[in-house]
């Protein structure tokens, strides 16, 4: 039986094959108001760029610069410092410094020590069956943060702790997060901020970090803000990295990739996943004032869903999965390389990609397409 099209662009994120729907959306309804979702939806490259360029289109709602649940505490302070979450001159300055830093650090970065995909002790098993679905789900989130933390020059001993803290921080962001989850998120945010602050200020910091310190001082930026933005690099790499790695793993399984995968083959799989089944499907902008775009008048206070994955069906060679213009992702090349390295490591550890690709579902997230392999036996994938 054919699978029905998604009903809206949020359902599309977890749909088995949303790409024909996205192509039709970008072609037929490049900018429209979705009454059911209560959102405006921009899906063609032109409409998305027009909204992104508008100075009234902000990355956070005016009334809620930080998610309410975490606002009063260290997680809120951290979140509010991220370049990703701010606009205007302050954003432009921290973004420039971060992009410079990433480019400089990339000249000296070495290959990370990947986390062991098999996290659980297998004392009860006599045969080595390779990582199972639970292991892989965990690895998808941990590996990108490990890689990013190693890229920042953090010592191997703290990489796993960073990955855990980023996940705890992420878990505290949804509006439905319970009080203990939020408390854990605050504690994680405090540890991350302190760790990256010490790392940035260390006398033996890498030349790129020292240059970041100097540029920050020249621009009059608080070192704590710079350190928070280094945490921001870990944060940004997590969910998007999990999606990229997971979708590349599914593709590997479908194509029968073996554990002897070369670096080049892994990179090709990751780049194919990026083009054909990207990790980030949409992002949002919040209107501080009314705007006219795509021949439509959109009221102040409206939210516009920018469907990057739909724009990518029109311009597959552009880098839509990484955003565009002022807030475009500065981590594109790193993300590609890290995902390829992590994929190879996972397959070399004996992961049965074909079995995983045969039964999984997507996590119920509004913007990121992340496969989940450990699902109850009776669940419909
Ligand atoms: C698969 C991996 C990744 C994907 C698909 C991805 C995608 C994106 C997208 C779509 C945006 C723009 C959001 C918007 O305009 O609203 C963005 C922003 C950002 N990304 Fe990535 N990203 C990935 C990995 C990384 C990594 C590894 C880093 C670390 C260097 C990173 C750092 C950032 C930062 C700092 C921003 C905010 C930039 C700004 O607001 O000016 N990302 N990313």
Properties at a glance:
single chain, 381 residues, alpha+beta, Cytochrome p450, 5-stranded mixed beta sheet, two-stranded antiparallel sheet, 9 strands, 50% helix, globular, binds protoporphyrin IX containing FE
Provide a brief overview of the structure.
It is built from 13 helices and nine strands. It has 381 residues and is of the alpha+beta class.
Tell me the layout of helices and strands.
Blueprint lengths: L18 H10 L2 E4 L4 E4 L2 H9 L3 E2 L15 H8 L6 H19 L26 H19 L4 H16 L7 H23 L5 H12 L4 H32 L8 H14 L6 E5 L3 E3 L2 E3 L4 E4 L1 H7 L17 H17 L4 H6 L2 E2 L8 E2 L9
Parallel strand pairs: 2-7
Antiparallel strand pairs: 1-2, 3-4, 4-7, 5-6, 8-9
Helix pairs in contact: 1-11, 3-7, 4-8, 5-6, 5-9, 5-12, 6-7, 7-9, 9-10, 9-12, 10-12
The protein binds protoporphyrin IX containing FE.
Broad structural category: alpha+beta
Query: Uncertain runs with pLDDT below 50, 5 residues or more?
Result: none
The bound ligands are: protoporphyrin IX containing FE
Radius of gyration: 21 Å
Helix share of residues? 40-55%
- Approximate strand percentage: 5-15%
Backbone shape: globular
**What is the H/E string?**
HEEHEHHHHHHHHEEEEHHHEE
- Name the CATH homologous superfamily of the domain at 69-109 and 130-277 and 331-364: Cytochrome P450
Count up the helices: 13
Q: What is the CATH architecture term of the domain at 69-109 and 130-277 and 331-364?
A: Orthogonal Bundle
> What name is given to the CATH topology of the domain at 69-109 and 130-277 and 331-364?
Cytochrome p450
Widest sheet, order of strands = 1-2-7-4-3
How far apart are the first and last residues' alpha carbons, in Å?
15 Å
The tally of strands reads 9
- Mean pLDDT equals 95
Q: Can you identify the CATH class of the domain at 69-109 and 130-277 and 331-364?
A: Mainly Alpha
């Amino acid at each position: 039986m054919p699978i029905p099209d998604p009903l809206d662009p949020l359902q599309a994120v977890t749909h088995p094959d949303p790409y024909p729907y996205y192509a039709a959306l970008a072609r037929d309804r490049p900018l429209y108001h979705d009454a059911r979702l209560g959102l405006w939806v921009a899906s063609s490259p032109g409409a998305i760029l027009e909204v992104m360029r508008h100075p009234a289109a902000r990355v956070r709602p005016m009334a809620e610069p930080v998610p309410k649940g975490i606002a009063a505490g260290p997680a809120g302070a951290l979140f509010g410092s991220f370049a990703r979450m701010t606009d205007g001159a302050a954003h432009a300055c921290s973004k420039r410094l971060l992009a410079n830093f990433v480019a400089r650090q990339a000249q000296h970065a070495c290959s990370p020590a990947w986390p062991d995909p098999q996290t659980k002790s297998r004392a009860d098993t006599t045969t080595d069956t390779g990582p199972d679905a639970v292991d892989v789900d965990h690895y998808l989130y941990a590996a990108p943060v490990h890689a990013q933390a190693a890229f920042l020059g953090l010592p191997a001993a703290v990489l796993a702790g960073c990955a855990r803290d980023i996940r705890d921080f992420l878990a505290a962001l949804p509006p439905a997060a319970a009080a203990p989850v939020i408390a854990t998120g605050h504690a994680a945010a405090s540890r991350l901020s302190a760790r990256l602050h010490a790392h940035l200020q260390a006398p033996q910091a890498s030349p790129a970090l020292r240059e970041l310190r100097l540029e920050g001082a020249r621009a009059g930026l608080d070192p704590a803000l710079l350190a928070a933005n280094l945490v921001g690099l870990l944060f940004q790499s997590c969910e998007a990295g999990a999606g990229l790695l997971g979708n590349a793993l599914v593709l590997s399984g479908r194509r029968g990739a073996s554990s002897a995968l070369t670096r080049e083959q892994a990179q090709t799989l990751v780049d194919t996943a990026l083009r054909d089944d990207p990790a980030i499907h949409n992002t949002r902008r919040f209107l501080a004032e009314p705007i006219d775009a795509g021949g439509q008048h959109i009221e102040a206070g409206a939210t516009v869903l920018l469907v990057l994955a739909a724009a990518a069906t029109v311009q597959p060679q552009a880098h839509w999965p990484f955003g565009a213009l002022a807030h475009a992702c500065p981590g594109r090349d790193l993300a590609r390389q890290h995902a390829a390295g992590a994929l190879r490591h996972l397959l070399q550890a004996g992961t049965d990609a074909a079995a995983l690709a045969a039964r999984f579902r997507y996590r119920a997230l509004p913007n990121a397409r992340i496969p989940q392999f450990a699902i109850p036996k009776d669940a419909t994938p």
